[in-house]
Amino acid sequence: MFQGRDFKPSIFGVEANAAKKKIPVGYAVDRTQAIAGNFPKGFHLGYAELAVHDYVMSKDMVYTINYGLHNLVRSHERVFHRKVDQRFRVRIRIFGKYADYERYSQVRYRKKVTKNLLGFFSAATKEIVTWRQQPHLSWRLVPTILHEGCHAIMDNIIGELPFWMIEGSADWLGEAPAWLQKADGLRRDQLERWIRMEDLLKKKKLPPLKNYLLTTSYDEWDRMFDGNIGQGYDVGWSIFDFFMRASPDGKAMKFLGAVMSDRAVTNAPRRNGGLEKAFVATVDRNWHGHLPMLERGWHTWIRQEAARAHKKLAVERAKVANP
Questions:
Q1: Are 130 and 144 in contact (CB under 8 A)?
Q2: Which tens digit of pLDDT belongs to each residue from 16-49?
């Protein structure tokens, strides 16, 4: 386990059941079979390589993870105009027991975890480590894997990112697919996020955009948001959402991709906030109206999405009150 030799490749596809209904399924397979490519018709080698401990992954879960990773790779390539390596795989280790997740994290990575840390990706070993989650948060396991999968994809195609984008992009790309948002918990969580962002804006507790974009650590988020690091995730997610969706013609998304490919950013020093400073300077230089105009547009976007969230949550509450 500690050498990472227990990961198994996976395949995914569609097969017919006894009633001839097509069912999407996935399986872990031997490495020799993966290399030979001897799969059933309609099945493909997935990006996921799996190591599970006291946990049984259902066939549809293996499919869902591979389907999600496949789409995430395409989304990252489309946004950032770079491709993953041909042999790129996402190694995922899942523990059925929290105690085992905690012990492995401590022994392997000298990392202290809590139940609030749903999982993490190690760039050094190229593996995602997670566990089945608490019973009331079981729906969080797949989004957590896909969130950490985004870190793995970004690590492969870009390497180091501006700090805000590490979590902002993973939160957004990992939870964006419409098929994933069918889960009530995730969909409601996203609506509530916009309301939390609106609340920060109304109370004038939302930090200046430049200050936030220049942060380089969770400790800075801890100080910036009075100990509530989760707000740092919310802010990054909302900024990335603005770039991805605010422009109907996709210009903002293309702009972000261009910034990440700009020489000033790609050649920036990776120490002492050099990457973050280069990112902010490049955005300020190229955005129409500079950084203040971008900040104004982002604030407008928060208000717009929060208004939509309030309406949707009101409809949901009305359905519960009047079933």
A1: yes
A2: 877 778 899 999 999 998 888 888 888 999 999 9
Question: How long, in residues, is the chain?
Answer: 323
Is the pTM above the cut of 0.90?
A: no
Q: Tokens for 116, please give them.
A: 């609030």
pLDDT band at residue 159 under the 50/70/90 scheme: confident
- Average pLDDT of every residue of the chain: 90
Mean pLDDT confidence for 302-310: 96
Angle subtended by helix axes 163-175 and 141-157, to nearest 10: 130
12-32 as b/e: b if 16+ CB within 10 A:
bbeeeeeeeeeeebbbbbeee
Q: Transcribe 213-269 into DSSP letters.
A: HT--SHHHHHHHTTT-THHHHHHHHHHHHHHHHS-TTSHHHHHHHHHHHSHHHHTS-
> In 3-state terms, what secondary structure has residue 11?
strand
- Alpha-carbon gap, residue 21 to 195, rounded angstroms: 41
Distance CA 44, CA 38 (A): 10
Query: What is d(CA 66, CA 288) in angstroms, rounded to the nearest whole number?
Result: 39
- Strand ranges across the sheet with 90-95: 22-28, 8-16, 44-53, 90-95, 127-131, 119-122
- Of 15, 5, 8, 19, the closest CA to residue 59 belongs to 15
Average pLDDT estimate for 210-227: 96
Within the chain, strands assigned E span 8-16, 22-28, 44-53, 90-95, 119-122, 127-131
Q: Would you say 13 and 43 are in contact if contact means Cβ atoms under 8 Å apart?
A: yes
User: Residue 28 contacts by C-beta under 8 Å, 6 or more apart in sequence?
Assistant: 8, 9, 10, 50, 57, 62
Distances (CA, A) of 186 to 98, 175, 294: 22, 8, 28
Q: CB count, 10 Å around CB of 114?
A: 8
Torsions phi, psi of 144, nearest 5? Answer: -65, -45
